[in-house]
Amino acid sequence: MIANPIDPVHFIPTRVLHLFTLSLFAATAVFADDECPPRYSYCGYSGPAQWPNLPIEKNECGGEKQSPINLVTQTRTPGDAIRVDYVAGDAIIRNTGHDILVTPTGDAGKITIGGKVYKLLQFHFHIPSEHHIHGAGASGEMHVVHQLEGGTDYAVIGVLLTSGTTYPALAPVFANLPAKACTKSGPIRIDFAKLLPKELSGYYTYAGSLTTPPCTQSVTWYVLEARRTILGQELAKLRALGENARPIQRNPMPLPATYVLPK
User: Is 98 marked active-site?
Assistant: First the structure.
């Protein structure tokens, strides 16, 4: 992705930029879920600094619980293991114009934590990683998104990715990666059951938001301490689509994160 050669923060007064942004998006009050590419971006006039001004329904990008954050190493706290019950199935792999989105065509399973059940909705990638651990990021990050059964809250598992050996469950994704924006592949068979271990231990958890507009603030994050590896050429494929990481958020009050090591 080529950055905008004009930095709006330095060359355009904030008030003028705000008015420009509103007029730019005035034609559409609500972004369609399948709109491609989305009308936000990662640089220029619709970049992350302007997301709070986007005229979208229930825009919470200017809220006080925004993700991602820097996760600071803490004393290990006993807590619940995350039980993973995914099943193999077909999925659609879509290039949204900002990321690669993998969506099951049917029921792909669930996770259970603290007695709550969350259904698997999708997973996608960010280059480089959005979360940092003790100030250090990673080459990439996979977000596995779930929704509470019978509710609207989300649980997102963050997996930091580095270059190394293959990640077998993701092999079908990279073998069928749609390189052009607004195109898709599939249905492709994916063994979701091998996407994550059956029980997850050693994770950071906190209450935050989605990291793309509308930045909904009903997300519990579970960022795994252990990094996973994918092939270098797979990282290169994602990097070739453009960087899509929201910067670390400076919330008015730091979001308390807990490092959990289940019993």
Answer: yes
